[in-house]
Write a structure and sequence with these properties.
Blueprint: E1 3-5, E2 11-15, H1 18-21, H2 34-38, H3 57-71, E3 75-79, H4 82-85, H5 95-110, E4 114-120, H6 138-154, E5 160-165, H7 167-175, H8 187-211, E6 216-222, E7 226-228, H9 233-256, H10 261-269, H11 285-289, E8 295-299, E9 304-308, E10 314-316, H12 335-348, E11 353-357, H13 375-393, E12 398-404, E13 423-425, E14 432-434, H14 436-447, E15 449-451
Parallel strand pairs: 2-3, 2-12, 3-4, 4-5, 5-6, 6-8, 7-9, 8-11, 11-12
Antiparallel strand pairs: 1-15, 9-10, 13-14
Bound molecules: 5-hydroxymethyl-3,4-dihydroxypiperidine.
The site of 5-hydroxymethyl-3,4-dihydroxypiperidine has 8 residues, from loops.
């Protein structure tokens, strides 16, 4: 068995997001977010639940910092809630909201934990939906105002900022497929929404640099290597299309200042654009979007195996039997993490990369004494950390790894049915209990190393 040591200073971390853990819906003059509203819509959330209390982190945050200290994480990735800081979406900021995050950040720093803040992890203020949400260009300026208010207050103590989390999910799941807030099903909204997210990212990076001392500014993308289901030309073509729409639609504008021409043609063929024209892209936008960033945050959960469906378009079709899929229906495929990191480094040359999310949803039953034995999460963690280690050896500038998630939480449209946490949360009492994977991760962090599998 050999020991795989990580570079000195590698940032071991865990991640969460505001809407998924905070609760405190009306506390501290917070306004409603799109998800607070969406959760009240008939059939929107699988178990009929809502994020109004979630893990009650809003009142239990001190205890949560103690959990992090026990785990030994060097860094914690969380998001600030736009609805808490700017309840009306734009205009006046809410000092109670800013105070909450300032106190929290100070306590993290006192515990020796480096804060990584994401400004938008999907919980846009509901007030902005009336203007069209992300489909409206006006939301760009609103986001920049919020980024300014937040970085003005916290920029003297927080260096690491990400603008958005997973703009593909916001634009495609929210505005095209209708699985996420606001539940729209219009490609005519989804493409402008993606563009406005990217544009607001670029403009907010400038604001971050202005307000933050020694800023490290980036964005977080969910990236998934596209795998042809078979070696046929049709499936290979479907994989190219998937890669264009899912990965390159965001990577190319950010790193090359242009949308991928083949994917633009694919959108035209599907009738989502007229003759490759994108009227929502204005002069200067692409230069703003491709402002250099300090790091790319990469969220990795699985590869995406695709078959050619109707019209040759990609249809997801896992390559392993159903019983091996996770509770989310995702395949466990650690090599895909190495592939993705190496490919992004080779094709786009980011200065640094962090794996900002990686994790697995499992049934996670507690036994009579409250203990949670989760051997599949331990193997998942070990195999993905080894995959990250291989990427570092191959030259990827990977600086840290954040496990998703620190604790069980509100999993969006799935409500409280999918458990990703290192800590179990009893949603009746909000009590937190470390799972066996938390003990395993704690040992790996302490050793700054991971042993090969037996
Ligand atoms: O819970 C989500 C997170 O908010 C964004 N990335 C994927 C996770 C698991 O689905």
């Amino acid at each position: 068995m050999s020991t795989n040591s990580f570079p000195q200073g590698f940032l071991w971390g865990a991640a969460t997001s505001a809407q998924q853990i905070e609760g405190g819906r009306n506390a501290g003059s917070r306004g409603d977010s799109v998800w607070d509203w969406y959760a009240t819509q008939e059939g929107a959330i699988e178990d009929g639940s809502n994020p109004f209390t979630a893990c009650d982190h809003y009142t239990r945050w001190r205890e949560d910092i103690e959990l992090m200290s026990w785990l030994g994480v060097k860094a914690y990735r969380f998001s600030t809630s736009w609805s808490r800081i700017m309840p009306g979406g734009r205009g006046a900021s809410n000092s109670e909201g800013l105070d909450f995050y300032e106190t929290f950040v100070d306590a993290l720093l006192a515990a020796g934990i480096v804060p990584f803040i994401t400004l938008n992890h999907w919980d846009m203020p509901y007030a902005l939906l009336g203007d069209g949400g992300w489909a409206s260009r006006d939301t760009v300026a609103a986001f920049v105002e919020y980024a300014a208010a937040t970085t003005e207050r916290l920029g003297d103590r927080v260096r690491h900022w990400a603008t958005h989390n997973e703009p593909w999910c916001i634009s495609t799941l929210g505005y095209e497929e209708g699985h996420h807030a606001p539940g729209h099903t219009s490609p005519a909204e989804a493409l402008p929404a993606a563009h406005h997210l990217l544009l607001s990212h670029g403009l907010a990076v400038d604001v971050i640099r202005r307000n933050v001392r020694d800023a490290e500014a980036g964005i977080v993308l969910n990236l998934s290597p596209a795998w042809p289901h078979s070696d046929t030309d049709e499936d290979r073509e479907a994989a190219r299309r998937f890669d264009g729409l899912f990965n390159r639609w965001f990577l190319d504008p950010l790193f090359r200042g242009e949308y991928p021409a083949d994917a633009v043609e694919d959108r035209t063929r599907r009738g989502h654009l007229e003759e490759n024209s994108m009227p929502f892209v204005r002069e200067g936008d692409m230069a703003a979007i491709s402002v250099p960033i300090d790091y790319l945050g990469a969220n990795y959960y699985s590869r995406t195996a695709v078959k050619a469906g109707p019209g040759g378009d990609p249809v997801g079709a896992p390559l392993v039997p159903k019983e091996e899929l996770t509770e989310m229906g995702w395949e466990v495929f650690p090599d895909g993490l190495t592939d993705m990191l190496v490919r992004v480094t080779k094709d786009y040359g980011p200065r640094s990369i962090y794996v900002t999310e990686n994790g697995i949803a499992l049934p996670d039953e507690a036994d009579g004494s409250g203990r949670v034995s989760d051997p599949r999460r331990i193997s998942f963690l070990r195999d993905h950390l080894l995959a990250a280690h291989r990427a570092i050896e191959a030259g990827v500038p990977l600086k840290g790894y954040f496990h998703w998630s620190l604790m069980d939480n509100f999993e969006w449209g799935h409500g409280y049915t999918k458990m990703f946490g290192l800590f179990r949360v009893d949603f009746n009492t909000c009590e937190r209990t470390p799972k066996e994977s938390a003990y395993w991760y704690r040992d790996a962090i302490a050793a700054n190393a991971v042993e090969d599998a037996d």
